[in-house]
Amino acid sequence: MATKTHISTGAAAALVLAASILVLQAHPTPAAGSTARTFSYGWPVKPFDQPHPVRGSFGDPRTVFAGPPTERTLLSGAGSFQFHFGIDVSAPDGTSVYPVASGTVRGLHKDWLSVDCGDGRVFQYWHVDPVVAAGSHVEADRTVLGRIVKEAGHVHLTEIDDGVTVNPLAPGHLGPYEDHTTPQVGEVSFRRSVGSADLMPEFLRGSVEIVASAQDMPSVHVPGEWHDLPVTPALVEWRIAQATTHRVVVPEHVAYDVRHTLPANNSFWTVYARGTHQNMCVFGKHYSYMQPGEYLFRLTPGGFDTKTLQDGVYELVVTATDIRGNSSSVAVRFSVHNKPGVVGA
Length: 345
Known about the structure:
Layout lengths: L3 E4 L3 H16 L27 E3 L4 E5 L5 H6 L2 E5 L3 E4 L5 E2 L5 E6 L3 E5 L4 E6 L1 E3 L6 E2 L7 E3 L5 E8 L2 E3 L17 E8 L15 E9 L19 E8 L5 E10 L10 H4 L10 E2 L2 E2 L8 E3 L5 E2 L6 E10 L5 E10 L9
Parallel strand pairs: 3-19
Antiparallel strand pairs: 1-24, 2-5, 3-4, 5-13, 6-12, 7-8, 7-11, 8-9, 9-13, 10-12, 13-14, 15-16, 16-21, 16-22, 17-18, 17-23, 19-20, 23-24
C-alpha cells in the first residue's frame, strides 16, 4: 500500500461561495422582509421544507452481479451495471409521496410514475404505488401521487431537464439542502492493468493504471439498516507534483464528475474500476444485507505513461468533493524509474 498524506484544503469555502453566487443570480434577492429561497422545489415527502436523509446519491454505482459472491464475480462477472440516475430519499413504507413541482402525469407504471411540468422538466418517482391517473393534473405539495411500496423504505427522485438527467442536489434544485460532511479518499493503487495486482509505488515504469477509492456519508443520518452506509462524492480529481518542490507537472484531471449530469451507462467500467459494488449488493441469489459498498475510480482509463515524467520522486494528489464543495485530498508518493536497470542494483 502506498504511503499517503491527508491534505487540508480551503477550496470548499470558495466553491460554496461560488455556488451561492450562481444561485443568487438565478434567484434574485427578494424584497426586504421576505425569506430568501435558494432552491427551485421542496422535498417529495412531508415536511416539504425540511431536509430528509438521502441514502443513495446521484451517480452511485448500481450493481447486480449474475454470479455468486466470489472475488471472481466481483472482478470479472457479468450483470447489470449503471449509474444511479437520481437520489433515494429515505422514508418509511407507506409514506405519502407528493410532486415537487406541479404538472401532468404522463408516465404511469406499477411502481413508478412521471410528472411533466410543461417547462422542460420531468420528475420521476420510483418505488411508489400510484393513486393518480395518467393525464391528470397534480399540484406540488398538495396532490398525493402514491405511497412508498412495502420493503422499499425510500422514494427515488429523478429530475430530467430538457431531456437530460440532472443532479437534484445541485444548487438551485432541491432544497432546503445542506451538507457538512467531507468526502474521504481511501486507498490509491498503481497497477499494470486495471484488473492486475498492485504495483510497488517505489518502482514504477512504463504505462500504469491508477485507481483510487473515495466515499462520502449522507448529510442527514439515515435510520434503520441503511445507516452508516457510504455514498459517492460528486467529483474526483487528480494531479501530479514533484515531491521536493511541489511543482505541478501533470495538471488537474477530472476522473468523475456528476455535479450536473451523468456519464453514459456504457462507460460504467471506464469510470469505475472492477471491485466496485453498491451498498447491499446482489450476487446471484445472495443479498449482501447491511454490507457497505466500495467505490473505486479509474483515474487514468487506458493507462498513464510514466515516460512522460523524468525519473524521480513524485506525489499523486487525489481530491474528492461533494455537491456543496466540501473536499479533502490524499497525497501518495511514488518513484519513476524508466532508465534501463534497477536503481541501486
